[in-house]
């Protein structure tokens, strides 16, 4: 039997960090280096899977779009590139 794994062992790091008291709860503290490297801002996704806890940076692909749209409108860069309605469309 052949078992293939898709792991890149060079990028696997195991660290031991303490669980600390935070008020009435407990938590972990992540270093500034880890926060920056993995682009962690305000929140994380937590995945509970087969005896493991996986922390994953929350993907926010549209963060900052509202400000960018306001800037575009101010500069007049928010015009349509193509017509909103095509000639062959009919709405009845």
What does this structure look like?
- With 92 residues, the protein is of the alpha+beta class.
- It contains 2 helices and 4 strands.
- The radius of gyration is 23 Å and the shape is elongated.
- The model has no long low-confidence stretch (mean pLDDT 82).
Salient structural properties:
elongated; two-stranded antiparallel sheet; single chain; 92 residues; two-stranded antiparallel ribbon; alpha+beta
In short:
It is built from two helices and four strands, in the order E-E-H-E-E-H. With 92 residues, it is α+β, with helices and mostly antiparallel strands.
Secondary structure: elements and pairs:
Layout: E1 20-22, E2 25-27, H1 32-37, E3 44-49, E4 52-57, H2 65-75
Antiparallel strand pairs: 1-2, 3-4
Tally of DSSP β-strands:
4
Helical segment count: 2
The strand order across the widest sheet is: 1-2
Q: What form results from the Cα inertia axes?
A: elongated
Q: Tell me about the largest β-sheet.
A: 2 strands, antiparallel
Low-confidence stretches: none
Distance between the termini: 64 Å
Strand content: 15-25%
**Average pLDDT figure:** 82
């Amino acid at each position: 039997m052949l078992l293939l794994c898709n792991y890149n062992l060079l990028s696997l790091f195991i660290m031991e960090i303490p669980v600390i008291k935070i008020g009435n709860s407990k938590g972990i503290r992540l270093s500034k280096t880890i926060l920056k490297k993995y682009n962690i801002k305000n929140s994380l996704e937590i995945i509970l899977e087969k005896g493991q806890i996986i922390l994953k940076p929350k993907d926010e692909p549209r963060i900052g779009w509202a400000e960018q749209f306001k800037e575009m409108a101010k500069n007049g860069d928010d015009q349509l590139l193509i017509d909103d309605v095509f000639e062959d469309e009919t709405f009845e």
